[in-house]
């Protein structure tokens, strides 16, 4: 029975950002640090200014004289405080995280953007308390929100599983959503339901989406996914290729078993465009027969790791 592990850390999990969480509640230190702090502006759809191979930061004092309630504290780098703020009018040479990932961004940039996007996206939908609709305002430098009577909410993270289904040998199951072009495939994934374990979620989602019963579920690793604020938990599982594929929940348009050589060739041809479906003919007459996710996704790391394992048998158990 072939088993494998991730052969590298997923891109968005390689954060080199010092979050300095001990400073979030220290108003005096944050006030003092604001004078030399740097600010990152986040535009529509999570875009940022990116010029000459680096994020464009500005002096925080250009936003306000002191820490702004609209800004979120990201951490510290070389003694300098780092903040981010939503700017829907942002202009210039703009890129989003998916595009930057294909440019081999460094670990610091990956960590900064993952944190900034997740926090800002959470704030956008957390203006009111879920229990009674009471207004909430940012607190702890953007790492919580509080009501007038002191009730506190913290950033929400939605866990989701993503699973590579293989046959224990040389084949892997990949699937395509209805909105994707005919050659674009990835791993199956789904959100964890209330009161559900991760393993049970894998079993349920794989059955719901393609009708397969899976076994030997193994955890591989995780990655933040700030679109808008999720955590992807990677797994592998075994299934019998002779089982019929049944698309019961309507999310999957097509699923196919691919050989290791087919997947290896697809990896060599590159990845999806920055925005899946953009710039690709829905029915291309030529080009790669299989397109796989780009480097921003843990799906890419999982597939690459499976290919690299090359079908080696697991130790006897």
TrEMBL record:
Q: Name one Pfam family in it.
A: NUDIX-like
* Keywords in alphabetical order: Hydrolase, Magnesium, Manganese, Metal-binding, NAD
One Gene Ontology term of the biological-process aspect is: NAD+ catabolic process
One of the entry's Gene Ontology molecular-function terms is:
NADH pyrophosphatase activity
The EC code for this enzyme is 3.6.1.22
- Give the matching InterPro entries: NAD-cap_RNA_hydrolase_NudC, NADH_PPase-like_N, NudC-like_C, NUDIX_hydrolase-like_dom_sf, NUDIX_hydrolase_CS, NUDIX_hydrolase_dom
Boundaries of each Nudix hydrolase domain copy? 155-280
What is this protein called in UniProt?
A: NAD(+) diphosphatase
Organism, scientific name: Nocardia speluncae
The protein's gene is named: nudC
């Amino acid at each position: 029975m072939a088993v494998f592990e991730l052969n590298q850390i997923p891109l968005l999990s390689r954060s080199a950002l010092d979050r300095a969480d001990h400073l979030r509640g220290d108003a005096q230190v944050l006030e003092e640090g604001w004078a030399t702090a740097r600010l990152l502006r986040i535009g529509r759809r999570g875009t940022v200014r990116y010029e000459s191979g680096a994020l464009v930061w500005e002096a925080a004092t250009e936003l306000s004289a002191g820490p702004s309630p609209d800004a979120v504290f990201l951490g510290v780098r070389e003694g300098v405080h780092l903040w981010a703020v939503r700017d829907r009018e942002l202009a210039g040479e703009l890129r989003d995280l998916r595009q930057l990932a294909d440019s081999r961004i460094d670990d610091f940039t990956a960590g900064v953007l993952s944190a900034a996007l997740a926090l800002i996206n959470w704030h956008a939908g957390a203006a009111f308390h879920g229990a009674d609709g009471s207004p909430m305002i940012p607190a702890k430098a953007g790492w919580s929100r509080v009501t007038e009577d002191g009730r506190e909410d913290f950033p929400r993270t939605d866990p989701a599983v993503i699973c590579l289904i293989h046959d224990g040998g040389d084949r892997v199951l990949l699937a395509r959503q209805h909105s994707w072009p005919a050659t674009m495939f990835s791993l199956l994934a789904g959100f964890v339901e209330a009161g559900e374990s991760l393993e049970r979620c894998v079993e349920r989602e794989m059955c719901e989406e393609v009708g397969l019963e899976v076994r030997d579920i193994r955890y591989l690793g995780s990655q933040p996914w700030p679109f808008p604020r999720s955590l992807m938990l990677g797994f592998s599982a075994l299934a019998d290729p002779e089982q019929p594929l049944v698309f019961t929940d309507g999310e999957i348009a097509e699923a196919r078993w691919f050989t290791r050589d087919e997947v290896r060739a697809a990896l060599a041809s590159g990845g999806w465009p920055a925005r899946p479906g953009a710039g690709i003919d829905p029915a291309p007459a030529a080009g790669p027969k299989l397109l796989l996710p780009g480097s921003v996704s843990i799906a890419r790391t999982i597939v690459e790791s499976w290919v690299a394992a090359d079908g080696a048998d697991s130790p006897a158990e």
